[in-house]
Amino acid sequence: MGKYIEMIRIRFLMMLAYRTNYYTGIMIYTINISAYYFLWTAIYSGKSDIEGLSATQMVTYVAVAWMARAFYFNNIDREIAREIKEGKVAVEMIRPYSYLGMKTMQGLGEGIFRLFFFSVPGMFIVALIFPMSFSTEVTTWLWFALSIVFSFIVNTQINLVTGVLTFFFFNNDGIIRAKRVIIDLFSGLLLPISFYPLWAQDIMAFFPFQAISYIPSMIFTGGFSGDAIYNAILFQMMWSFILLIPIMLLWQLAKKQLIVQGG
Amino acid sequence: MFYVQMFLQYFSQYMKTRLQYRTDLVVEFLSDLLFQAVNLVFILVVFGHTQLLSGWNREEIIFIYGFFLVPFAIFSAFFNIWDFNERYIIQGEMDRILTRPIHSLFQVILERMELESLFGMITGIAVMIYAGSRLDLSLSWYDPILFILMVMGGALVYGAIFIMLASIGFWSDAKTAIMPMMYNIGNYGRYPVDIYNQVIRYVLTWILPFAFVGVYPSAYFLGREEWYGYAFATPFIGLAFFTLAVILWNLGVKRYRGAGN
Questions:
Q1: For a surface tag, which of A8, A59, B175, B254 has the fewest beta carbons within 10 Å of its beta carbon?
Q2: Helix, strand or coil for residue A49?
């Protein structure tokens, strides 16, 4: 256990060394959120609410979705792909830890860094500029905290799967890019899932994507309450378990047919 | 003439390397297509809940998006210089470029071409044809010419902004994340500028003129006469900003001292 916590710490310190990048990062997110602010204000003009969300809730939703993204988002799919291509993965495999576990911990170290140095100050700045609604109930905040932990788990698991696929496709930059686009769209980052037509919502219910962004953002904005929260968290928990299966299977297969390309 | 020859040489070399890895190419096409679809889905879903966006209807917004895709495709194919600072300044590749007998910017562009991005032009035109036919837009004989001029203007605007950003690398070699930020700001130009506040509208028109890549030129084809002045200015704005960018680049090259040893 100690060595995994050490991984989190090392990655955290690494991020700290490159923090200028993250100041510009806060600006990028602020600009993004303001673009959506104007767009949504125009969409809401003359309407008090759409699908149960008021305009203020909608702006809060967009801001929280982007800020939560800073926590769950990581590049470990790219890192795994690179290490496989460069052949470094062979060395990693004989080390006394689980390779995928270590990658997850590195992702977590990154996430914790961004949460404190990026999301929290970013949210503060955005809240000064745009009208937003924060819940005053402690329980909402606790549910939100729990659900972004699951966001991280589900998103990281999907990243592990796409990363490990490099073993089978050699060059999977295209797949990684496609995965990113799919997650932006179907996770609820750009649009709440409840805005989609019903048939699309029915299809999306069979995929893990809304566990990543839609659920925590809806909990935060108060779009979910009571039983809806329990069901949503249950949905996230279920996918955290289901996704373990493809990861384990692919990893077993990968170990058997390891072809180191160069290195 | 020499420049055309150089381009053709690089072009044939490029095709050879690309066609070597066909599956890669197919996956790339598909993920590009998916990327273009995301914004379209966004527009479609939003208009499931509203009729008008500041007086613009669904088909008009789709048309603007379709138009935007065309100059954007040209930009992505030829001005793929978002990692210029890291690759050419920090890693010292620029030293090699400067020993070549053609203009340094042209050389960088040739090296970083990503011609498969041009596929986005087809998607864009298809989107415009769809939206245009639903809006019953009629074409005059000179419209295709204006279209080409405005597309060129838009692509030059995009290219100019990114060349200027790359030129910053000649003065400061610290790694920055300004480039991805610009990609986000570029998206502002895809929606009618009247939804933004005055400051943003001014910035998008005169400082980072992304509005000339999407909404202004589209306004001409959509028959929005109140924007005609801006629409016809598109090629000139493109040329003006591009000239400025090349001047800035040349100044930067003169100042360039090389990296390390």
A1: B254
A2: strand
